[in-house]
Structure formats: C-alpha cells, structure tokens
Design a protein that fits this description.
By secondary structure, the protein is of the alpha+beta class. The protein folds into 3 domains: 60 residues, no CATH class; 179 residues, no CATH class; 111 residues, no CATH class. The protein is built from 18 helices and 11 strands. The chain has a 5-stranded mixed β-sheet, with helices on both faces. Strands 1-4 form a two-stranded antiparallel ribbon. A hairpin with a 2-residue loop joins strand 2 and strand 3. Helix 2 packs across helix 16, helix 7 runs antiparallel to helix 10 and helix 9 runs antiparallel to helix 10. The longest helix has 25 residues. The protein is elongated. The N and C termini lie far apart (100 Å).
C-alpha cells in the first residue's frame, strides 16, 4: 500500500523536476488542515468527538463545499471550505473568505504588470505561467479587479488626511489616454509627515496645472483635515504658487532645482550645456545662502553677455530657489527638488503606453493611483526625522542651523 505523503514525511521520490508541484501539494495540505482546525476551534472538539452536554457548542460539521482554486504567489492550489451546520452565522473563515479566489499579493501583482507594459490581452498567458493552468483568471475577472481599483480610488480620495504634514511636494504628471485629444495632467501631492513617513495625499486630474486646478486640490486637502504645511516644493509653474498663496498663505514655497537647471540649459547652445550644467549643480550644493548667491553671480557674469536669456532664467523667482536654507540642513536633499514625486513616476513616464490602454482619463488615474499605493510602501523615510517636530512647531533656521533667539531685554 502506498504511503500517504504528509508535510512531516516528504516523499522520497521528489526530484528537482517535480519540486514545484510537490511544494504546492504540501501548501495545499497545510491550508486544508488549517481550515479544518478553524472548525475544531469553533466547536471545541475534534472530528467525531461527542458534544459536551454542559458547555459544548450545538453545531456540528457538515462536510466540505465544492473544490475551490486559490491563487498564491507560489502557484494555484485547490481546497474545500468546511461547512458547519447550526452555527452558520458564527462561522466565517479567516483563512479563506467566502468569495476569495486570490491572495492580496496576487492582486498587488496585477498593477505592477500593467506598470511594466503588459497589455490586458497578455494578462492571462503571463499569469497562468506564474500561477499554473488552474489559476481562476479570465478577462471578466481582470475587468472586475480594475473596477475595484476605481472604487477604491474614489473612496481613498475622500479619506481624512493625516494632520501632521510638515512638507508637501507637488507636481503635474501628463498622461495620454486613448480617446482624449490632448494629454491630461494629473496633479499629484505627496506629504512628509512629522514621524518621517512620506505618503501620497492627492491625485487629481487638472487642466494644464492651472491656478484653479491647484487651488481645488489644496482646498480639498484642507477640507479633508490637512494642516498648512511648513514648506511646499514644486516646479516653476505659476499655477501652484498662486493657488498656495490663496489657500495656505502661511506656507513657504520652494522651487525644484532640477527643473530650474533644465530651464536654464534650454536657453544655451547644446555645445555649452555640459560645462554650464556642472556650474549650475554647484549652486544649490553651497553650504550657505551667501555662497550660493556668489556662485549664482559667477554664472550670470559668465553667460549674461552672450546668452542673457539663460542668465534671466536663473535669476527668475530666485527667492523660492533658496527657501531650503531656512530649514534643517539634514533635510536639504529632500527639499531642493521635487524628486519625491518624480522618482515614483519614473516608470510611468517611461511607459506612457500604460495610460493609452484606457479610453478615459479617470481609468488611467485609478491605475496610476494603484501603482503609487504599491510604491508608497517602499518610500524612503525622511532624514533626521527627529527634527520634523521642531520644524512643525515653527523653529527658525539660518543656513540649515537652528537659530536660538536671545531675549536681550531679559538678559540685560
């Protein structure tokens, strides 16, 4: 008689070629055993044991339901949910909810596949290669999942915002959806919280980063409970700054140096750009604002004669370029650019075809939101998080060093 394979006694015939199927079989056995143990825990007795007439539960086992395929990251297994008679209203499996067909990890895999350029038509082939031929996948199930993302996004965009926002990074990301004549602008805001975390707080479609669009986003954040941030970092588009002055006038404004450098280089011939770029990069890297402005003046003297537009581009809106000097030096690498928004969108920018699969901008927005939610779990925390509390409380800094003002009258 052939000995039954169990997790404790692996079959001696397992080989490298059969290792994958053997592993899935063992996982399937373990899941089934845990499901049955849930019923044992509910009833307080093992199978075939008599109920205690004093404190035993009145329910009893009633076999198992139909075989159900469940997709895991290791493949697809088949299990059967145990049934309970007499306690149906109290039995809800924590291991396998009633209508579950895939784990959350598999659900998270789908938007990543979209992000990497996989079309919906290729979904089934790719996932069956990963999960096995028995994976419960179909075009309709994938479409339902996409609809679920849309519903989750609509619910997310009205949730309360953590009130401990210290810094806010904003940017406009352009995407092309299938039936839209022009690229749509998605307005994105990522907040730096008092505990050092960075979280996405807003993704809204806007008309070319207009003042009205940005003002609507900021007002929505305020209505959702967001406090006025100490500093807002963005590019040179005038829409965000006019909106900021109207909605959060107490917040300071800082412009992105990456955008500024690109704007200046566009006013120079290509042959001069490498050397000019090296000089421009040195300016925001200066240890003090005074040194920063000396390097600025050196660049202006060098290029103003032959290329006045390049010099004017550097000088334009200068006060917002040096705002970061009024905050802790440990935070400068986060505050000099809008990379906090740009970095998560790097893959999206490189794969603009992802947005073209959608006929409407709203659908593309839900996908990009889902991708950002996955990226958010891997966001790097802010440096020197212990300083964020004093920044939030209004501490003053000069050249990145906290200024402790002395009450001269009391000292006298």
């Amino acid at each position: 008689m052939k000995k039954k394979t169990t997790p404790e006694a692996p079959a001696a015939s397992v080989t490298w070629e059969t290792l994958e199927s053997f592993a899935r079989e063992q996982i399937q056995l373990v899941i089934q055993r845990v499901l049955d143990e849930e019923v044992t825990s509910l009833l307080g007795r093992v199978k075939s044991a008599r109920r205690s007439p004093v404190d035993g539960e009145v329910g009893y086992r009633n076999g198992h339901g139909k075989p159900r395929r469940l997709s895991l990251t290791c493949g697809t297994v088949t299990v059967r949910r145990p049934r309970v008679r007499g306690l149906e209203e109290r039995f809800e499996s924590r291991i396998l909810p009633l209508f579950a067909r895939r784990t959350e990890e598999i659900g998270g895999l789908l938007p990543e596949l979209y992000l990497h350029g996989l079309s919906q038509g290729d979904f089934e082939l790719a996932l069956r290669g990963l999960l096995g031929d028995a994976a419960p996948l179909s075009a309709s199930s994938i479409e339902r999942l996409r609809g679920k993302w849309q519903a989750e996004f609509e619910e997310w965009r009205t949730r309360p915002v953590n009130p401990d926002v210290v810094y806010l990074w904003v940017d406009g990301i352009y995407v092309k959806a299938g039936l839209e004549k022009e690229k749509a602008c998605l307005l994105v805001a990522i907040a730096g919280l008092r505990d050092g975390r960075k979280v996405v707080v807003a993704i809204e479609s806007g008309y070319r980063e207009s003042t009205e669009s940005w003002a609507g986003l900021l007002r929505a954040l305020r209505e959702r409970g967001m406090n006025a941030p100490r500093l807002v970092i963005g590019d040179g588009h005038l829409g965000i700054w006019s909106a900021l002055a109207a909605v959060f006038p107490e917040a300071e404004a800082g412009r992105c140096w990456n955008h500024k450098i690109l704007n200046v280089l566009e006013e120079l011939p290509k042959k001069l750009r490498p050397q000019a770029q090296e000089l421009l990069r040195q300016i925001p890297a200066a240890e003090t604002q005074a040194e920063c402005e000396k390097l600025r003046d050196r660049f202006v003297r060098r290029y103003q004669g032959g290329y006045p537009k390049a010099a004017a581009a550097l000088l334009r809106d200068w006060e917002r370029m040096v705002t970061f000097y009024r905050f802790p030096q440990e935070h400068w690498r986060h505050l000099r650019t809008s990379n906090v928004v740009e970095s998560p969108f790097a893959s999206v920018r490189l794969r603009t075809a992802a947005g073209k699969r959608y006929k409407k901008v709203a659908s593309a927005t839900a996908l990009i939101w889902k991708v950002l939610m996955i990226a958010e779990s891997r966001f790097r925390r802010l440096n020197a998080a212990h300083l964020l509390g004093e920044v939030a409380e209004g501490a003053k800094y000069e050249d990145g060093v906290r200024v402790h003002h002395v009450n001269r009258r009391a000292a006298a």
